[in-house]
Design brief:
There is one protein chain. This protein has about 160 residues and is of the alpha+beta class. Helix content is about 10%, strand content about 25%. It has a domain at about 50-140: Phosphoribosyl-AMP cyclohydrolase (Ubiquitin-like (UB roll), Roll). The chain has two helices and six strands, in the order H-E-E-H-E-E-E-E. The strands form two sheets. It has a four-stranded mixed β-sheet with strand order 2-1-6-5, with helices on one face. The protein is globular.
């Protein structure tokens, strides 16, 4: 199996960061194991009840994750970017609450579970390549951990 095979992941065990052998490639985004970063952000093999047809269509990265662009229902404003695996997507689809995989905490998190800044899911769409999700939400409070409504509040100058 290869990462390029849609919906499939590899099984190499020679990962220097100590990650589980579920994924075939190691990239610079995966830190080596240290006292500060005991794990590299890869997720352990988690069984999921995600519809197999949906799972087959997902184009995951080397860590088994799919980026999820989160957009506000009504305004269309992009609020944030998060990451999902099969189980996070399953939980999101079945509960209506946005659930993501935290690469820094190495666990699932439901947006707003501790802050109260919840995201109630209105729709989920898979892009044409199957490698990005668009999550449309009704946002309660700030979407960004900084307290801003959106994570995209720093404009960059474009020449021309």
């Amino acid at each position: 199996m290869s990462v390029g095979e849609r919906g499939r992941v590899g099984d190499r065990a020679d990962l220097p960061c100590g990650a589980p052998p579920r994924y075939s490639l190691n990239t610079s985004s995966h830190r080596p194991r240290t006292a500060e970063y005991p794990r590299c952000g890869r997720i352990d093999a988690v069984s999921s009840n995600l519809d197999p047809e949906v799972a087959r269509r997902l184009g995951r990265n080397e860590a088994g994750l799919v980026p999820a662009v989160v957009q506000e229902h009504g305004t269309g404003q992009v609020l944030m970017l998060a990451w999902m695996d099969d189980e996070a997507l399953h939980r999101t689809l079945t509960t209506g609450r946005a659930t993501y995989w935290s690469r820094s905490r190495n666990r699932y998190w439901v947006k707003g579970e501790t802050s109260g800044h919840a995201q109630h899911v209105k729709s989920v769409a898979l892009d044409c390549d199957g490698d990005t999700l668009l999550i449309t939400v009704e946002q309660t409070g700030a979407a960004c951990h900084t307290g801003n409504h959106t994570c995209f509040f720093t404009p960059l100058e474009v020449a021309g």
